[in-house]
Structure formats: C-alpha cells, structure tokens
C-alpha cells in the first residue's frame, strides 16, 4: 500500500507542475488586455490635440485673410497707399505727383476710373463721365487712372491722345506700376470705384457704365456727404 501512495502523490505533483506554466501566459494576456485601452486612449488624445492645433492654425489664417480683404473692400490701409503722376488737373489734385490716400482725406466723394487709351469701352464711356463731372465738379473729385501699359491696351501717348480727342478735362494720370489695380482687384476695363466723403468705398462698377447710372451713384454720394 505504501508504494501506491507514493505513486499517487508523485502523480498529483506532476499534474500540478503541468498546470502551473499555463497560468503565467493567461495572466500576461490579461495584463496586455488591460494595457491596450490605455494605449488607445493616448492615441485618441494625441489625435484630438493634433486636430485642435490644425483647426487653430486654420482659424488664424482665415482671420488674417479676412483682415486683408476688409482693408481692400473698404479702401483703407494699404489699398489706398499708391501714388500716380498727373496728366492733367494738377491745380485740382494739388501737384504733378499725387498720393491717392491724400485725396481720400479731403472729405469729398471721389470717382476713380481705371481706363486705357486703346480700350474701346473706355472710349465709349468717357464722354458720359465728362458730362457727369461737369455737373458735379464742385462737389466731387474725379480721377481717371490710365493703366493701358499694364493691360496691353495702350501707352502713355495713346492715353494722352484719347483725352485730347474726346476733350476730356477732368483730372487724369497714370500709376508707375500695377499696385492700384491689384489693391482694388481691377479685372475688367474700364472699372470705376466710387468713394464716399468718409473715404470708404461707396460702390464699384466693373465694365462700362452709362451716364444715367453714373449720375445716380454720384448724386447719392453727394447727398450723403451734405
């Protein structure tokens, strides 16, 4: 009987020894399962922070672009910071080289017309601008800005010839570069921008404008300024 008991005890020990190694991997697997959610949470937090950073950077860009657009639309800041040489009307504009921002500070409505010497629509509308100018010359400032050399629609000489041919007497001149065209987003010829007495843009007109429409806009600006 004693040998049998020793055999049974040895058998039980062998069973116990065989079961012990299986418990360690199970415990490790359980531990790994517990750690995975923590790693996933960390990844989610990192992704959220990255998204917040990208969103914040995009918001800053939008604000900066909005500020620039606001300046251009309202005629303030850099948009009006350009000079031009005067073809005619020096006694009205105050010299042969004029800063447009200084004209805006005079407290009068301004009509700024972009034109070119070899531009057929410009030629067609200029007599109407002349007649409106003659009706309101005491109350507003007219400026015809020749941009023919920057549009492929003329030269300084062709611009001067057109003024003489059509007997245009309102002030006119030319900028040294494309700056005013870029600042005021001039994409068609002619383009007319109307400024109120406060120096802010009152209205803009892309393309040729009729005498009737021009007169209505100018009359509204003069009435608002009085």
Give the helix/strand class: alpha/beta
Element string (H = helix, E = strand):
HEHEHEHEHHEHEEH
CATH architecture of the largest domain: 3-Layer(aba) Sandwich
Largest sheet: 7 strands, mixed
CATH superfamily of the largest domain: Glutaredoxin
CATH topology category name of the largest domain: Glutaredoxin
User: How big a fraction of the residues is strand?
Assistant: 15-25%
Q: Please report the number of helical segments.
A: 8
Question: Can you walk through the features of this model?
Answer:
The chain folds into two domains: 1-74; 80-225, 3-Layer(aba) Sandwich (Glutaredoxin), CATH 3.40.30. Helices cover 59% and strands 15% of the residues. It contains eight helices and seven strands. The chain has helices at residues 2-74, 90-93, 100-104, 120-136, 148-151, 156-165, 179-183, 211-225, and strands at 83-88, 97-99, 110-115, 141-146, 172-174, 191-195, 201-206.
């Amino acid at each position: 009987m004693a040998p049998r008991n020793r055999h049974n005890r040895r058998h039980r020990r062998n069973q116990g020894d065989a079961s012990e190694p299986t418990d360690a991997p199970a415990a490790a697997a359980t531990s790994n399962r517990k750690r995975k959610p923590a790693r996933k949470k960390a990844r989610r937090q990192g992704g959220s922070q990255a998204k917040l950073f990208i969103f914040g950077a995009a918001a800053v860009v939008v604000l900066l672009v909005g500020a620039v657009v606001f300046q251009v639309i309202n005629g303030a800041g850099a948009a009006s910071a350009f000079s031009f040489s005067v073809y005619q009307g020096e006694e009205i504009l105050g010299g042969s080289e004029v800063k447009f921002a200084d004209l805006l500070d005079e407290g009068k409505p301004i009509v700024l017309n972009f034109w070119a010497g070899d531009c057929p629509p410009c030629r067609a509308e200029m007599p109407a601008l002349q007649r409106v100018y003659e009706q309101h010359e005491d109350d507003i400032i007219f400026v015809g800005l020749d941009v023919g050399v920057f549009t492929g629609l003329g030269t300084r000489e062709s611009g001067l010839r057109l003024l003489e041919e059509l007997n245009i007497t309102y002030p006119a001149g030319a900028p040294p570069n494309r700056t005013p065209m870029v600042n005021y987003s001039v994409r068609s010829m002619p383009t007319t921008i109307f400024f109120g007495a406060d120096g802010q843009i009152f209205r803009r007109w892309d393309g040729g404008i009729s005498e009737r429409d021009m007169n209505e806009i100018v009359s509204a600006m003069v009435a608002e300024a009085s």
